[in-house]
TrEMBL record:
Record's protein name: Aliphatic nitrilase
Low complexity bias (residue ranges): 312-323
Domain annotation CN hydrolase: ranges: 7-273
Region (Disordered): 306-353
SUPFAM superfamilies: Carbon-nitrogen hydrolase
Family to which this protein belongs: Belongs to the carbon-nitrogen hydrolase superfamily. Nitrilase family.
InterPro entries for the chain: C-N_Hydrolase (IPR003010), C-N_Hydrolase_sf (IPR036526), Nitrilase (IPR023919), Nitrilase/CN_hydratase_CS (IPR000132), Nitrilases_CHs (IPR044149)
UniProt feature, compositional bias: Basic and acidic residues: 333-342
Length: 353
C-alpha cells in the first residue's frame, strides 16, 4: 500500500471587525497568509465570520434588532463578488485551501453560507445552513440539500457543516456516505458560555469517530470591548462569553493538539491520513458496519427555487414536430415532476416485513 501523506492544517480563532465594512476581510487575508507561512495547506475560519456573526440576535428582541439586521444586509457577501474574488486570489497566491463562513446576501434574503476555495482559487463549494438555529431564524433563510456535498480538493475530500447542523444525524450521514476525509466544522464562539464549548467538543469528537475522518473546527472570539459595544447592559453580556473550542480532531476522536478555548490564535496540526484506514478497518459506518437493506438515507440534492416552469416552451424541427432536444427536455421535466414532494426532506427508510 502506498504511503499516505501528512497534511498540515490550520484552524483560526479570531475576532471580527465590527466597525468597518472591509475590516474582517482584511483579517481573513492576513490570517490566511500567516497560516500558509506556517506550512498549512488548509485554513478554516469561524461560522459567518464575514462580516460578523449576528450576535445581536441572541441578546436583543426582534423589534429592537431591525437596525442591526439592516446593517448586516448592507455588509453581507454577494457570491461571486469582491469578497470571494479577494479570498480566491489569496488561496491561489499561497496555494492553500480556504474554508470561510460568510453572511451571504441573495437579493432580499441572508444565508449562513460556507465557502470552500481550492488551492488554485476555484470556489468548489458554496453551501447554506439547512436550518438556522433558534434566534438565527429571524436572520437567515434556509438552505437546501444541494449543498450537502463532499468536494475534492488539493488536501483531500472535504465536507462541511455549520454549528448545530451537527445535531442533525442525517445531514452528517449524507457527508459520511460521500466518504469525507476532512470534515470542516464552524461555530460562532463567544456565545452561551462553557456549556457550549463542552457541547462543541463532544459533537466534533463524536463525528470524527463515527465518520472515520479528521475534523477541523474553528470558533470566533469577541474582545471585551466588542462585547460592551454589542450590549450596553452587563446581564446580556454574560451570554457573549465562553463557548470557544477551536480544535483539530483525529479519526480516533482525539485532539491532535490542545484546543484553543480563549483568545485569538491559529491552531496548526499535521494530519496523518493513514489514520483514516486504521479507523475504518475497525468501523466503517457507511461500509462494512452499515446495513443499507435495513436503514438507508434518502437525499434530495436539488437546489430549491421560488419558481419553476412545469414544461419548457417547445421548439419545433423543420419537419413540424418537436425536436429531439425539446423532446428530451420534456421527458426530463416530466421525470422531475414525478419525484415525490416529500423527497425534499431527508428521511430514514425502514422496510416492514
Amino acid at each position: 500500500m502506498a504511503e499516505k501523506p501528512k497534511i498540515r492544517v490550520a484552524a483560526v480563532q479570531i475576532a471580527p471587525d465590527l466597525d468597518t465594512p472591509t475590516g474582517t476581510l482584511d483579517r481573513v487575508l492576513a490570517a490566511t497568509a500567516e497560516a500558509a507561512a506556517k506550512g498549512a495547506r488548509l485554513v478554516v475560519f469561524p461560522e459567518t465570520f464575514v462580516p460578523w456573526y449576528p450576535y445581536f440576535s441572541f441578546i436583543r428582541p426582534p423589534m429592537l434588532s431591525g437596525a442591526e439586521h439592516i446593517h448586516l444586509y448592507d455588509n453581507a457577501v454577494v457570491v461571486p463578488g469582491p469578497v470571494t474574488e479577494a479570498v480566491a486570489a489569496a488561496a491561489r497566491q499561497h496555494g492553500i485551501v480556504v474554508v470561510l463562513g460568510v453572511n451571504e446576501r441573495d437579493h432580499g434574503t441572508l444565508y449562513n453560507a460556507q465557502l470552500i476555495f481550492n488551492a488554485d482559487g476555484t470556489l468548489v463549494l458554496k453551501r447554506r445552513k439547512i436550518t438556522p438555529t433558534f434566534h438565527e431564524r429571524m436572520i437567515w433563510g434556509q438552505g437546501d440539500g444541494a449543498g450537502l456535498k463532499v468536494v475534492d480538493t488539493a488536501v483531500g475530500r472535504i465536507g462541511a457543516l455549520a454549528c448545530w447542523e451537527h445535531y442533525n444525524p442525517l445531514a452528517r450521514y449524507a457527508l459520511m456516505a460521500q466518504h469525507e476525509e476532512i470534515h470542516v466544522a464552524q461555530f460562532p464562539g463567544s456565545l452561551v458560555g462553557q456549556i457550549f464549548a463542552d457541547q462543541i467538543e463532544v459533537t466534533i469528537r463524536h463525528h470524527a469517530l463515527e465518520s472515520g475522518c479528521f475534523v477541523v473546527n474553528a470558533t470566533g472570539w469577541l474582545t471585551e470591548e466588542q462585547i460592551a459595544k454589542i450590549s450596553p447592559e452587563e446581564g446580556p453580556r454574560r451570554g457573549l462569553r465562553g463557548g470557544c473550542m477551536t480544535a483539530i480532531i483525529s479519526p480516533e476522536g482525539n485532539h491532535i493538539v490542545p484546543p484553543l478555548t480563549s483568545g485569538e490564535g491559529i491552531l496548526v496540526a499535521d494530519l496523518d491520513m493513514a489514520l483514516i484506514v486504521k479507523r475504518k478497518r475497525m468501523m466503517d459506518s457507511v461500509g462494512h458496519y452499515a446495513r443499507p437493506e435495513l436503514l438507508s438515507l434518502l437525499w434530495d440534492d436539488r437546489a430549491t427555487a421560488p419558481m419553476r416552469k412545469s414544461h419548457p416552451t417547445p421548439s419545433f424541427s423543420t419537419s413540424g414536430g418537436p425536436s429531439d432536444e425539446t423532446d428530451s427536455t420534456f421527458r426530463a421535466a416530466e421525470a422531475d415532476a414525478d419525484r415525490a414532494a416529500d423527497q425534499r426532506v431527508a428521511i430514514l427508510r425502514s422496510s416492514t416485513r
